[in-house]
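We examine the record.

___
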Amino acid sequence: MKGITLILEDSGKFLRLNIDTQEVEGNPDAKQLISLIKESEHGRLFVLEESLVKLANDVHKAKENNSHKQLDERVAERRDAEVKFKLTDSDMMAELSLLTACGGANPNYPQLLKMARAADIKRGLSRKRLKAALQQANSEPPGTHIKMIVAKGLPMRAGHSSKMLPLVPNALERILRPQEISVSRVDMRDLGDVICVKAGTPLLRRTPPSQGRTGFTVRGESLQPTPGEWLTLKPGSGTLISPDDENLLLAEIAGMPKFNNGDMWVDETFVCKGVNVGTGNINYDGAVIVNGDVTEKMIITASGDVTINGFVESAIIQAGGDIIITQGAMGKQAEVGKTEYSTKLSAQGSIHVQHGQGLEIICNGNVTVGKQLAHSSIICRGAVIVGPVDNPNGNLFGCEIQCQQAVQAGTIGAVSGSNLFVDFSEGYNFLLERIDAMEELLKHIQDNYIRHKTRIDVIKKKQLPNDLAKKVNMAVKLYKSEEELLGWVIKKVETLRKSKDEYLDTIGLLSSKKVHSGVVVKLNNRTWKADRDYSRGRVHYFEHQWHFQPT
């Protein structure tokens, strides 16, 4: 540009700009002067923009006054890269901040590694990331700011507590996993021997807790883990701790073992060849095993599991544990249009039926069906699975279901168009009620906490006599307890909200073959109805609506 000269000082570190106000054309502003430098052979130098703004103003004033001046300013300089390391997250991470060189030099790998060590980064440094940062610095324009995490510590991992490992399966687990004939085949009719143990049989082993994993910070400081705890081995009814091994639980009596939520017990077992008018009804405090059929109008009541190796027809079975029917169950509707069934199965645990029709099923766990379930009523707090648990391919139609997890089957609905109704509302509404109750409690505690905190802060600033100071200390302790309660309630509300989201992700239908028309899925006022036949797929709830997704 006429009237403007760029002069590199002898040292080569600084660039000067000389402007002859009489010869320069026009009235160049700071942006034009910056472009002039960037487009010159000195374009990689660091531009001193304030100097260029001053020069542009001086040129403007000289032009206005029609005066002749020789303006000269230092406008750019050669700068090496700027490197900083910042330790974050309680010294668990180190961040590299690198401003690339402007006409100067970027560091090489040995120099950068030495800088990292000088910043007290002793462990967890990634040489691969350092090299990647240098490679990026050499390819980016001058003055580019690069940020990258280059070192990570290892968090300590607390030891896990001892575990309770059952040595015998629950009856329902055995039913759902048929015996293997070979590596690739199973016998669906061979469900193994009924699980009954003799006195002295090992039932459960307590494993030792782990010590955890030692961690470290990027400074090289060791983080010691908290060892796991020994959980108390509590003998349930019908069990005892081995006199030779304090970590082994043995059966004290002969009966049916049961493992649930870390507890093991043995139910005394009543075994019969069938239940009919000849045997009479059964009411037993323990487990019941029926090696035969249960005939019409008979009643079985047990505090433990009920296992029936036969067929059930128009009978009532109530269990404090699981109900397992290895063949089938059949019932009748009392009247057309009513949901009264002659066969009623009620369990505190889960219920398994090989195939069923005309049943009223109520349980707190899952409902699993071996092959087919039709024209029945189901109320459960778990899932409904028709077919093998690892490949639900059975048939489900003509039922009214209230459950709290997914319904899985091969074919859902029927060609005849008989309706299948699935309602997921109860479990969701229960969660909403709990969330509302906890949020109301949280608001009440928060209001009290804020009010008390304000008063405590005021009191702490005052000089108090000794007798009053003791009362204040007691008040502070109560305030701290209230603070802990507030923290617990906040976590509880967060957990419940997460449970609500997980509930919506879990519910729906999963079909491995077909969904027929007439199938209805409901969550409060949101309903999906199959108006035609669908191929295999998934009905799921997303963004306040039901959707069908082929698979």
User: Anything to note?
Assistant: Helices lie at 30-38, 49-65, 109-118, 127-139, 171-176, 425-460, 466-506.
